[in-house]
């Protein structure tokens, strides 16, 4: 698992979305590294983290992040996840509650259906799945790309009852025209007991890029209100 560390202070783990890499946080890491120890990894089968297994799950990826924390001897951290990284972050808080101090999640979904994803995106994925499911994949890259596609076509499958068990404070974020419908983002927030909701105006899926300064400040204030007194 390839990772990079920047800055010193309380640890923040940043987790990117499907097909992304450490570079997804290129605009945000400098801000946070002035106040925190920022840890960003390439998730398995993405970036410089290679994975030759034939399947992939969000649960595996959540456990990978905890294994990374173990290797760095970090007991608990703030966790910031974007898109699929937000799903991984939610599962970290569910599976390893003692490891997540606070959670900030942008553009995450709980199910792979047309209520939890933009219906047009879901239809597009359905067309890709039907056109590709019987193809023989030869190159390692094609196999890896298909594995990443199937991750989002078949997963996640997180029930509302399960996210109700999240104990840490959570900031749930979505754009007002995100790939995740606002209604679904609201539902996630409503079912996490200690949760705040932020729907970012005039924003698509890339809240942390499109509104970088507001995003960084809002997440920082949520994690460490003392920075803003």
Structure, explained:
The protein has about 230 residues and is of the alpha/beta class. Helices cover about 40% and strands about 20% of the residues. The protein has nine helices and seven strands; from the N terminus they run E-E-H-E-H-E-H-E-H-H-H-E-H-E-H-H. It has helices spanning about 30-35, 60-70, 85-95, 120-130, 140-155, 160-165, 180-190, 205-210, 210-225; strands at about 5, 10-15, 35-40, 75-80, 100-105, 170-175, 195-200. Strands 1-3-2-4-5-6-7 form a seven-stranded mixed sheet, with helices on both faces. Helix 3 (about 85-95) links the parallel strand 4 (about 75-80) and strand 5. Helix 2 (about 60-70) crosses helix 3. The longest helix is centred in the middle third of the chain and has 15 residues, at about 140-155. It is globular. It starts with a strand and ends in a 6-residue tail after the last helix.
Tell me the layout of helices and strands.
Elements (H helix, E strand, L loop, with lengths): L2 E4 L3 E6 L13 H5 L2 E6 L16 H14 L5 E6 L1 H12 L4 E7 L12 H14 L7 H15 L5 H4 L6 E6 L6 H9 L4 E6 L6 H4 L1 H12 L6
Parallel strand pairs: 2-3, 2-4, 4-5, 5-6, 6-7
Antiparallel strand pairs: 1-3
Helix pairs in contact: 2-3
State the strand order across the main sheet.
1-3-2-4-5-6-7
User: Which outline best applies?
Assistant: globular
| SS elements, strand count | 7
- Terminus-to-terminus distance: 37 Å
Main sheet record: 7 strands, mixed
Reading the helices and strands in chain order gives: EEHEHEHEHHHEHEHH
How many helices? 9
Estimated helix fraction: 25-40%
Q: How much is the average pLDDT? A: 96
Secondary structure class reads alpha/beta
Strand content: 15-25%
CA-based gyration radius? 17 Å
Low-confidence stretches: none
């Amino acid at each position: 698992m390839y990772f990079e560390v920047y800055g010193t202070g309380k640890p923040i783990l940043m987790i990117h979305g499907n097909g992304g890499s450490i570079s997804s946080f290129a605009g945000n890491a400098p801000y946070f590294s002035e106040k925190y120890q920022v840890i960003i990894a390439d998730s398995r089968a993405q970036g410089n983290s290679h994975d030759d297994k034939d399947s992939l799950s969000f649960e595996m990826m959540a456990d990978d992040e905890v294994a990374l924390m173990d290797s760095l001897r970090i007991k608990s951290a703030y966790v910031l996840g974007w898109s699929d990284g937000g799903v991984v972050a939610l599962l970290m808080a569910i599976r390893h509650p003692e490891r997540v101090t606070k959670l900030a999640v942008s553009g995450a979904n709980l199910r792979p259906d047309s209520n939890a994803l933009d219906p047009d995106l879901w239809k597009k994925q359905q067309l890709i799945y039907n056109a590709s499911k019987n193809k023989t994949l030869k190159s390692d890259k094609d196999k890896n790309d298909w594995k990443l596609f199937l991750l989002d076509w078949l997963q996640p499958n997180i029930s509302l009852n399960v996210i109700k068990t999240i104990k840490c404070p959570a900031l749930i974020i979505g754009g007002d025209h995100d790939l995740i419908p606002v209604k679904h983002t609201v539902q996630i927030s409503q079912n996490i007991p200690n949760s705040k909701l932020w729907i970012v105006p005039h924003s698509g899926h890339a809240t942390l890029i499109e509104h970088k300064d507001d995003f960084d400040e809002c997440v920082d204030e949520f994690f460490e209100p003392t920075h803003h007194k």
